[in-house]
Predict the 3D structure of the following.
Amino acid sequence: MTPLQNLGRIDRRWLFLGMGILVLIPLLFPLHLPITPTATSIAFHRAIANVPDGSTVLMSCDYDPGTIPEMVPMTRTALRQLWEKHCKVVITVLWPGGPGLVDRVVAEVAAEYPDKKYGVDWVNLGYKPGNEAVMVLMGQGILTAFPYDYRGNATRSLPIMQRARDYADFPLLVSISAGYPGTKEWVQQVQARFHLPMVAGVTAVSVPEFYPYVQSGQLIGMLSGMAGAAEYEVLRKESGEASRGMDAQSLAHVFVALCIVLGNVVQRDVRRGDGS
Amino acid sequence: MSFHPSPDLSVWIAAFITLCIFSFLYKDNPFYKFAEHLFVGVSAGYYTILNFWTVLVPNLGEPLVASFKGHGVSAAKHGMWAASLGDYRGYLLIPALLGLLLFTRLVGRIGWLSRWPLALVIGAYAGLKTTGFAQGDLVAQIEASLQPLWTANPVTTINAIIFTVGLLTSLLFFFYSREPKGAFGVVSRIGMAFLMVSFGAGYGYTVMSRVSLLIGRFQFLVVDWLGLR
């Protein structure tokens, strides 16, 4: 057996250990590798920058704790950009495990802006079952779909909802989505029907599914997973969790690429050995 | 670098469970089994209670109780049946009944009754999905695929040509009515090459997503639990 063939029989736990070390070390000792924003992230940032100051924006946070590392940094940065433009933010959550998490994240960001008040500058409408049906129902009236917010307040009584009656009142929809229901459904049911301009932050695993929407202009901008969130932080000159995680992300990718190359070389050697 | 472990007991519990799950990477063991069973049990309980309080109570229980008292969302209107869009009042008894019918599956003889609410759900969603797909995907994507091949910008021109060649050859790859031989075989192989590139991109993004989750857990262990700064 050749040394290469021996390498092919390596215990995969060594690979897990290698991956663990490569992820852990940059978290302890940051390498500060450069992060260059891509066109879709720049477009996402620009789309929010172009929203008229003080307008009311719809933000749908469709995720749960399983995708915190990718979704939460995007949510935080988008909220900061919107609030620095004095925008009001109406938040919906179409995932049952999401409202509590989203409420906590928004409250943390709101604490950085003491002048922002719940019910005036932002509202969490909470979870509503029905997936696409809720999106369509919101087109008939946000108050119709959400008579009460996440905290049990009658939405009619909230000042922010006086200027958020239906989709026509929003200049932009920000969809932060980890799957179904999420960005795809917002495009199909809302962007296409109500022609509401839309940007999205999605998990990396689902990015290939959404590039056609960017190419067609249905999504004005898109953040792709943790990398997209880090690029957005760079554009905003913030140093958040996503930026801090990108060193580890880069090293892990190099490691996976090396494993793939090495695996192919080993398999080629094994096949040659079988042939002889 | 300094060490500031969290004083929060819940963080320590979460860190212990995380390490229990990570221990599976070495081999299956009782700690992993414990964490796995705990997760399944807690998730089942959490989602049951969550759905009760965020779905059944606010969308059915409270509105029905209010309607029996003769009022609803709109205080200006009185009466159990004075319904309007978003203020369905007594008519919510119909979805309540349909919801209960779903449980007839547990009763052998009348199990067929559960098909009625299921038929309603399937019908409504089939309609929503069909119109949504037609508007959001089919028409919009065909429209976006019709790109001018010659433009003033050479980069845009090259992109448009690559896009169009990729689109057509990928579509022809899935044309199974003819054996892929000769010129058609070449076109089909070009389409396959484009598909392989897209699969590679998909794999790369999948790796990124999974590594992100690992980074998130490590950030929790390093920053939130151990407080290494």
In short: Chain A touches chain B through 62 residues (CB under 8 Å).
